[in-house]
Structure formats: structure tokens, C-alpha cells
Amino acid sequence: MTETSRTGRFKLRTSALRAYTMLLALVVIWLFFQWATIDQYHPYGLFLGAVNFSKLLQQMAVTGVLAVGMLMVIVCGNIDLSVGAVVGLAGGIAALTQGWGLVPSLAAAIFVGLLIGAVQGALVAYVNIPAFIVTLGGLEAWRGVILRLTKGATIPVELPFFRSLGRELIRPRIGLGLAIVGIAAIVWTNIRRKRARQRHGLTALSVGAIAARIAVPSLVIVAFIFLMNQGGGVPIPVIFLLAVAIAGAFLTANTTFGRYLYAIGGNPDAARLSGINLKRYILVAFCLMGALAGIASILHTARVGSASPDAGTLMELDAIASCVIGGTSLMGGRGTVFGAVLGALILASLDNGMSLLNVENWAQYVVKGGVLVAAVGFDMFGRRKS
Amino acid sequence: MKSITKTFPGVRALDGVNFDLRQGEIHALVALVGENGAGKSTLIKILAGVYPHPEYGGEILIDSLEKRFANVREAEQDGIAVIYQELSLVKELSVAENIFLGREPRRVGVINWETLYSRAQKLLSDLHLEIDPRTPLVNLGIGQQQLVEIAKALSQDARILVLDEPTAALTDAEVEILFGILNRLRSRGVAMIYISHKLDEVFRISDRITVLRDGRTIDTSAARETDESKVIAKMVGREVDQIFPEPHHDRGEVVFEVRNVIVEDPAVPGKLFVDRISFAARKGEVLGIAGLMGSGRTELLMAIFGAHPGRKSAEIYVDGRLVQIKQPADAIRQGIGFVTEDRKRYGLILDQTILRNMTLAGLRKLSGRFVTNEDAEAAAGERAAGDLRIKAASVFTIAGTLSGGNQQKVVLAKWLLTNPRVLFLDEPTRGIDVGAKQEIYAQINQLAEEGLTIILVSSELPEVLGLADRVIVLHEGRITGEFTRNEATPEAVMSCATGRERQAA
Hints:
The structure holds 2 protein chains of 2 kinds. By secondary structure, chain A is mainly α. Chain A has 2 domains: 261 residues, ABC transporter involved in vitamin B12 uptake, BtuC (Orthogonal Bundle); 66 residues. Chain A has 15 helices and 2 strands. Chain B is an alpha/beta fold. Chain B has a domain of 235 residues: P-loop containing nucleotide triphosphate hydrolases (Rossmann fold). In chain B, the strands form 5 sheets. Chain B has a 6-stranded mixed β-sheet, sandwiched between helices. In chain B, strands 18-19-20-15-21-22 form a 6-stranded mixed β-sheet, sandwiched between helices. In chain B, strands 2-1-4-5 form a 4-stranded antiparallel β-sheet, with helices on one face. In chain B, helix 8 crosses helix 18. Chain B is globular.
């Protein structure tokens, strides 16, 4: 190793590069819709206004939560096609068990999701049935179970607090408080990191670099909270999504579990010979996906205000598309939670923006499909060149 | 074939090889397998048109006419058929469909099944094979599949049949059937090139024997006029390299012992890869395991490490204590490390960083039980990269972009970071350049001096002889000889590796 290599800096990896490209794409999409929604009532455009932006984020919350779970399943080389049906079933369970009270009914939804994840994960990991098959079967079977349980009827949400989970905003003051906690956490981790690097004899980051690492995310948080508070506060589903995304990012990037998931997806043989228990971690990934589908079902049911037998249909594909747009490889081993959430945000922005512009339904589908294929095509092109 | 040369980037694989074949003879090609092979596979691929004309030097003459094959098809049209170790059959199709794949008898584009099956039947009965041509290939054992492949070659009117290690996957009974067929083909005038390193078989079946070594023809002689010892001498040459530093390992007490390791081929029940092997190794000792390809070396290590599905039994003792190793994690916990053969497939995650690869096996020790500590990892990784002199921009370089030697060092670092007491090295220098080899040899000696027990498997004989304090030799899953450093001569080891038991000294 030469001296210059010990600075601790590293080149952008392909996945990170992809995330930055997608961030740029998101900005372009936002600016375009902002420009396109300028009219006499909105001289600066409607799209990024507090009210619409808040609505956009609420719309993406369900897909975003599912995308975080899907990312973990895909990174370890699997796929879950059943999450849409699980959202429907868990939502139905939550609605049916409202008589037990709020907490038991929400717990029931999450537990059902977890249980389904455990069953499917066990079939994949221990019985060696391909995940595609197991979860394709699940997609059909769980939808059937919903029909049996609800007898085909739509069940309204009656508990007022349950409904509020999907629609209410938290008070601006609490939002501000959360922002301060978030910024404090960022400052603290950076200081801790600096000390740790010294202790391990690694070159310290420059003051400028540390300042940037603190300033950039803090500014994003402040801007976000001010925008949301302008519209009355942060929507509760968005708080859920943020919590899930932060937990998911921590799990994948800062734990041995996450490291093993990437190893399993990157080279299962090497992972096995390095002493990793593949079956156990694949099972856990499916369990987490199931539990997150349970959480997503709560948000979805609360927002819609009822549990219908066809709730959640095709949500699995939105979740997969979010991961892929955000740089996840379907072959496993590559992808980030940040990218997956970014992918969900891009999809939601396209949905929302095109609705604002009254783009016809058929054209919306064509555009979304095109963006998915273009994102991957762009990635392939970039990789071949390098 | 005259003065055949072939170079790959940086390597001269074949250097003026001459080889001739007469009608109706079996000409065996024996060679020492080693790094980049001795050149037999390359030679065969040139003959088969895999490497087309201008990519090699020299000329191929058939019936005294020079042939320049542009592709495999052209070679086939001139009657050359190669049966590779890896069979090229479609498992889901029937025997007859496989034989005529791509050349099915047709009438206006529709397959004429009657003709297909009757012609297949005739071919099979010509070979005295009792196989129903309608049987799906999956229902046949590996041995019979191989015979089907021969039938396929003959259906293309092959005049020159090349068999690459045809008996590697066969049981003894199947070997007999194969030899019966080869003898019949010989009397029909088919010329055959028989590649093997099982010398007993070579002497039974072949008319002439050519030895290749380091890409050169060493000798061709009639089988009747030579014997196994002479062939072995030619295979190993006289040059045991001077490149190995004389090791001074302080051998301590026995720290690692295995008894009664039995491994079955999961695909062929009854066929044993490893047949009741026991051995022990001392602290600070380098124990070499020599043996040719297919002798069960890798399977032995995999089984001990808890990573072979065909393991039937294995008693493993660490410090004299019987330990249970059911999966690699158990082995690692007992202080065993395993630098596997084929680093791209089994060793590395190619699109992750050097650091991620280095810390994978010892992650919990290096980093944290659940929450990782990347700075602690980076510190350990940079130290290991420095110690092993891994040449890369930083530990954040993607492993797949490194040279073979540096990749191998990353795998070695991965296992050293688990702090092992026993280290398995399976072909640690395959496919890497001479400089990196030297560094790895030095590292092996140094580790042994520090008290690590090393089990070294290599098909490069000089490597085993140069590094090991003691050598055990495997042949077809059994130990056929054991030598101390001073007793181990290339001829003696090669003799055991080709199947002769060592007489008690």
C-alpha cells in the first residue's frame, strides 16, 4: 500500500454512482413538473408546493416501505412477488380485528405479515424452492385467503385513530423537534467516527469534509421540515417511511446481517465457505419483508379508509421497480436502501406530476414502464463503458 | 501436428509440439498436470478447431494435407471428434435425440422419428451397448452418458476420436465396457488420442505414448518399449526448482488429526471420492497432499471443512479433542481456515471491495457481533494488505479488478484475519505470476514458523516437494504413499500418484 492510498477516501462505486445519477434524474423530473404546472394561480408552479408535495410523499409511503423490504430480499439473491397480496391480507386482518382495539389489530397485521414471510422464507431457504415460485404461489394463495376471510366485502376502518395513521399530520412543533434530534444524531455520529478513526490509526478526515458531512444532510432536513410545516406538518405515513428507511439503511450498511446479505447475493459459494449460514439469513430477510408488508398494509388501509379484497394488487411490482430504478441488481449483491427509496420517490413523482398535468392513464403507464427500462439500460451502458 | 505453438497473453502454452497419429491406433497423451496445464488441453483445442488457424503456429496435416480449421464445425467435417471431460449432452432429451442433435433426419422440416430411433438403435448395437435410444439421458449414469457421447461422435463418422480423461467419472465396470468399445473401434480403423494420467490404464489400452511437459513434447515411444517408471521420469523431469527457501519449521505436538474420512460422489452413489483417509499434522508443520486431478484432494479438504454434501464420515480432532464440524462456520470456530481452489468461484465476491472480502470470514471478531465497526475493519484490512504486499490503489478497490496473484493474497488475508491455527491451502498458486508465487511461498514458510499448521494441496509437484515437511500422496481417494521431506523424490511421489502403492520403507 502506498501512502496516498491511506487517506481513507475511496472512488465512487458503481452503485453509488447510479444513486447520484438517479438523484440528478429526480431533480430534473421535479423541475420539469414545477415548470409544467405554472399557471395564473401558481406563478412558481404547483408541483413542489407544500400541499402537493406532502400528498406526493403520502402516496409513496406504502411503496417506499415495501421497497425497503424488497431490497433486502433482492440483495440476497431472491425476490418476493407476494407482497401485494400480503398487504391485502394483512390489511384485511387489521380491519377485521378492529374489535380487539387499536394496538392488537395493528399487531395482528404485522404478525400475519411476519408469519407469511417466515413460511415463504423457510420454503425458499430450507426446502430449496426458488423464491420466484414460492412467492408466485403466495401471490395467488394469499389473495384467495383474503376472499375467504372478507367474503369478498370491503370492510371500513372504524377506529378513528387507525384512520388518522394514514392521513393526519404531526404538529409542526413536533416536526421541528424531530429535525433537531436528527441533526444532533448526525453531528454526534460524525464526531464519534472521527475519534474512532484516530484510535485505529487511520488518517483523519479534513475539517471541511466533516463539515460537509454534517451540513448537507442537516440542510436537507431543515428544508424538508419547513416545507412540510408550511402545509400543516409532516404526514404520519411519511414518519413511518422515514423510520423504516433509517432502520433499513442501518441494518444493511452497519450490521453483520447486512454484510452477509450482500455476500450471499454476491457469491453464495464464497459466502458459505466463509462460514455464513445462508439459510438463516435468507429466512430473516423474508421475515423482515413480511413484517414490513404488514406495516405497509396498515398505512394503506388507513389511507384508503377501508380494506378491500383487491387491496395491494400489483404493489409488489412497484416495490421491485423502485429497487431497480434505485440501482439494485436483480442478480443480487448490489443495491442500497437509499436507492430503493429514491426509486419509490421517482415513481411517485411521475405518478403525481402526470396526474396534475392530466396526462391520460394509458400514457402514465407507458412513461413509467419506459423509465424503468431506461434506468437499467442506462446503467448497463455506463458499466460497459467503464 | 507439426511444431505447434500457441501463446496466451504472457504465457507460452505450447512450444513446438509434434504429435502424430496412425490409422487404427490408440495414442496416449500423458502429461503432468500443473499450472496452466502441460499443454494437452490446448493441443486438443487446436486440433478441434476451438482455436482457429492463425491463432496458433505450426501446421495440422491429415492424410498429408494441411488443414486450417476456422471453427469446430470444419474440424468435425474432417472427422475429428472430441469427448471432453465436461459432457456436452442435453440431459432432458432422449439418447437418440442427443446423438442426432442438430442433425435430425427430417422430411420437409419435420423430424422423422422412426428413422431417428432406428439409426440410433443401430449405432448403439454396433457398440454393443444395451441402451434404449428412447431413454431420457438423465436416467443414465455418468458412465453410460459418456458412452452415448462416443456413439454421437461415431454417428458423425469420426476418424479421429479424442478422449479427454474419459474414465474420471467411471466405475471399474464401466471402464471395462469403455475399453471394449475402444478396442473394437481400433480394429475398425478409428485413430484415437487418449488423454489420461492414470498410467495403468494408459499402458493397458494404448499403442504409443507421448509425454508433454511445460508445453513441449518430451518423448514419444511405443507402449511395449517403455514402462511406467520411465514415463514417470519423463513427466516430472529432473528439475526440482531451486526457488524454494529451505524451511526450518519447529514441529511441535500433533494439533490436528482426521480419521476415516469417507466422501461419496453425490451424483454417482457408490463411487467414492475419498475412501477412508486418516492423517495427522503437527504444530508448525507444512503437510503436503499430492495427487493428480480427480484423486480426491479437494473433496477431502471440503469434507473436513464441513462443505461437501457427499461426506459419509469424518472424525476430526483438534488438540486431541474430537470436534463436530457440520458446516464451515463450525470449522472456522475450531480455528481452521480454507484458502479454496478456484478463487473466483469459491473465494471472492468479485464486485465487492478488497476490504469487504478480507473481513468476510472473520467479520464478527474484527468488527462487532451485530453492529459493524468499519474503522476497525479498515485498520485490520490495511495492516493485512501491507503485510501480504497486496498491490492495489487502496483496500476499497474492487476485488475483481485485481490480478490473479493479488486476488489470491486477498483470499489468504481473509483467512489469516480469522486467526486460524490450521490453514488449508488448495492450489494456492494456480494461475498466478511467478513473482506472486514467490511471495506466497515465503508467506507459507513464515506462517509455519509462527506455529501455524498448514495443509497444502497442489498438483504442482515441485511446489509440494519444496514447501512440505511431509507429503502424503492420494490416488483415487486413497493414500498410496507417505514421505518425509528427504524421502520425497519427484519420481517416487509421481509413482504413488499414478496408482502404485509405496512399499513399506
